[in-house]
Amino acid sequence: MTVGQISPWDLREPHCYAIYWTPLRFQDDYTIVVKLSSPFGAFIETLAHPACVVMSPKVIEQGSQACAEAPIGTGQYTFKEWIQGDHLTVELNKDWWGYDADICGGTPLADKDAGFKSITLKPVPESATRVAMIQSGDAQLIWPVPDENLAGLKSDPNVIVGQDQGLVVRYLMMNNQKKPFNDKKVRQAINYAINKDAYVAVVKNGNSQPGTSVIAPKLQYYKGNDPYPYDIEKAKSLLAEAGYPDGFKTTLIFANTSANMKQGEFLKQQLAEVGIDVELISLESAIVNEKIQDTDAPGAEAEVDMYIIGWSSSTGDADWGIRPLLAKESEPPMSYNICYFENDELDGYLKDGLNTADRDKRAEAYAKAQDLIWEESPLVCLATDFNSWATSNKMVNVKMFPDNCLNIRNGKMTK
Hints:
The protein is of the alpha+beta class. It has helices at residues 43-47, 57-61, 64-69, 127-136, 150-154, 184-193, 196-202, 232-241, 258-272, 285-293, 319-326, 344-354, 359-376; strands at 3-6, 33-36, 77-83, 87-92, 118-121, 141-142, 159-174, 208-210, 248-255, 276-283, 306-311, 379-392, 395-396, 399-400, 406-407, 412-413. The chain contains 13 helices and 16 strands. The strands form five sheets. Strands 6, 7, 8, 9, 10, 11 and 12 form a seven-stranded mixed β-sheet that branches. A three-stranded antiparallel β-sheet has the order 3-4-5, with no helix packed on it. α6 packs antiparallel against α8 (232-241). The longest helix is centred in the last third of the chain and has 18 residues, at 359-376.
């Protein structure tokens, strides 16, 4: 038995924390008991975050450089080499504990004959190049599949294309501390002014579905809502009630990817229909981070008016799907509440969801939170992405988890 103490607020950023145990007492090799200093209902789910992995203490003691260049963990594959900017290669570990039914509680995590002798991962940012590699056989797996190439690859007999509902939700964020977005009627008007079905068809090439909540349907404690219908007249009426009968001018900031530009141009066109004149500001990612995410300016003084972002709760839990985006504590630079949304009622529901491990009570708290967000419209929930991947037809049992991580435990090549 290992006994330790950790405050739940140390888990605020699950991608950048470490747990240190005091003192260590072992009852057996496979049991850890964690005692929290206060309730944290999402604790188990937070441990499922992909960044929460077990690594060799000896390597950790050598520092972050050693962890990056020669990681030693507990997975199905062992590190072989990493050539920065070119490739990463891992090799199969047939002594992996996941093949042992006894260690796994009676059912192994993978079949005895599962696994690839080695895997080489190469970064290929150019979409057309990735598609050409899977078609020529130079690659046996690519992800994601560019939306515009899905239909073509599905017709290729040598390629198997997979699609499944993911966890990433696409948002149009509005700075709720700046005029005119401090008025709920304006925010709702923008929701009515954007055709979500057209967004899915035009921007995502059908590879998503209209947003029905601030979190994705596959997330724990999801509660769906009816999307705001596309209603130009309703949008204009709300803008007039808010004092903007002729609309207004604003800016939309985003990182300068082709996908974001496509989104930006679509949103600009949609909002122009109700008199909102949007200036598109496309910036390098590093500059976006500096101006939008790393700033400590209060919301009323922040540079951002509107912002495009996608977010996924990689813990699989509603807490990490909502709290980093809309809790008051999560305003930049702490996290990603770029809406600068401050609502005591919402914060109360989020705390209620963390203060208990009772699943029914947590579900109730997050349902109330999602209903409130839908009514207040601090952001526009545009769509929930589908994950997409393509494999050689000589490969089986390879797919993506909803959080877009590789699921290859039982992967193998066909004979």
